[in-house]
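Bit of a strange request maybe. I'm writing a small parser for C-alpha cell strings and I need a real example to test against, not something I typed by hand. Could someone generate the C-alpha cells for this chain?
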Amino acid sequence: MARLYEFQSKKLLEDAGIRVPVGDVAASPDDAFRIAEKIGKPVILKIQVWVTGRAGIGGIQFANTPDEAKLKAQQMLGIKVKNFVVEKVLVEEKLSIKSEYFVGLVIDDAQKTPVLIFSSVGGTGIEEIARTHPESVSQIPVDVVRGLKDYQARNLVQKTGISGKLLISLPAVLVKLYDVARKSDARSAEINPLVLTEDNRLYAADCHMAVDDYAVYRHPELGIDVAREFDRPPMPLEKIAYHVEEKDYRGTFYFLQMAEEISREDKFIGFNGAGGGGSMMSMDAVLNKGFKLANYCDTSGNPSASKVYRAAKIILSQPNIKGYFASGSGVASQEQYHSARGLVKAFHEEDLDIPAVIRLGGNFEEEAIMILADYLQDIPAQVEGYGRDDSPEFCANRMEELIIENESTSHKVKPMGDPVVPEGAYAFETFTGKIFFDHSRCANCESHGCVSSCKPDVLKLNEGKPVLSISEEEAKKGKCTECLACEIFCRFHEQDAITIHLPIPGLKEYRNKIRGVD
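Reply from user aminoacidic:
Good idea to test on real output. This should exercise your parser:
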C-alpha cells in the first residue's frame, strides 16, 4: 500500500466536508512562524513521518507563540526518526478537547469487504482499545455496491453507548470517511482521534490513509512518488525505477535499495533476481559468501529486453559495488534471450568494469548463455553465463572468485550521454523508445540480418534498406517488442547502423549529481 502523510489525508477529509484543525505544513522554521502567526493562537506541531508513537519520541510539540513555533520547528526538522529524516512539520491550531473517538476503515481480505470500526474511546491504537475497553468498540462490514448508509453508521455508533445529538453528527463523519476512502481507493483510513471540542464541534485531529498500489495511477492528485509500501520515503533511484515500471506493463520490474551508502571497503554487489522464490535462494547464496546487497531487483514475468536493460542501467548507477549478480528461478517460463540482450546492451554502454555472473535458467537458456558469451568478450569486465543446472551456490562462488581476480575493484558510475545518430536517419518510435537506422551504412550490408533476426516481423527491406513493415502507430503501441535483436546483430555482424534509444527519465541527472557534475 502507498501511504499518505497526515497532512495529505486531512486535505482529503476537508474536501469531503469533515472538519480539520486550521493549519498548514511547514518545511522550514520560518514557514512554521508564518503559519502560527496566521492561526493567531496556540498551535500544535507534528512531524510528518510514517511511524506511530510520535508523541513518545518528541514528534509532537506545543507552542503558544509564533516565535516558540519557529523554535520548536527548528528542533524537529532534520531529525532522524527510524528510517525518516523529518522534512515537514504540520502546524495546526491547538484544540480544546472534551472527548476522543476512534473511527477506521480497513479492507478485510477474509471477508473480501471493507470493514468500518468505531470506538467511543480514542487516542490509542484500536488493538489496545479493544483489549481494555471491549464494550466501546463496534464494527460492521460495508456492502461495496450499496455503500455505507446513514442508518448503518448510526446503529454502529449507538452500539458503543453514544446517544443524544452525537447520534446525528458522528454518523455523518463515518459516512463521509467511507466516501473518501472509496473515492481514493484506500485500503485503510483511520481518524484517531476524532475529537469533540468544548464548543461541541467534531474535528479529525489525526488521520492516516493508505492507497491500494494498483489504483495509484488513477490518483495523480495525491502526488504519490512510488506506489509501494515503504517504511521510509523512496530513494531517488527507487523513484526512477518505479517510473519505468508504471509505464511498461510487460513483465515485472521491482527495485529496492538496500543501502543508503556503499563504502569501498564493504563487499556490496548489485543484485538482479527473477521470481520471488528463486531470488530468495540466490540472495541466500551470495549472503552466505559474505556479500552485502546494494539493492534488490526483480525482473520476472517475461519482461522485455528493454526493461531488463533499464534495470541493469539503474543497478549500475550505484557506485562502489564489486560485482553484478543476476540469478532467479531455474525453471522460469520467460524467454531468457530477452534478458541476455538487455544485459548485453547495458554492459556495452557502461563499458562494464566489474565482474558479472548471470544465471539465466529457463526457456531458451542455452541461447541466452551463448548471447552473453558471444557479445560480451570485448568489455573490460569478465561476464559468465550459467543455466538451471548451475546452482545459486556455485554461481555465488564464481562471483567471489571473479571479484578476487578483479582485485575487488569498485564500480565507477559512468556519465550518461544522449544517443549519437546521423542527421536524416530513418526512425520510428517504439513502446518506450525510438529506433534509428543509418541507411547510408545499410548500403554496405550483405546479410540484412536485422530483418531476419526480428521475430515479430516488424521490419522489411525496401530497396535494400530496412524499414517498417507495419504502421508507425502499430510499432509505437507495442508491435515492436523492443527485443533489441536487430541492433545487436547489426552491431556485431554488420555495419553498426542501428541505434535504439531507451530513455530512463531522471537517471542522467542522478548520475551527474552523485559524480559531482553540474
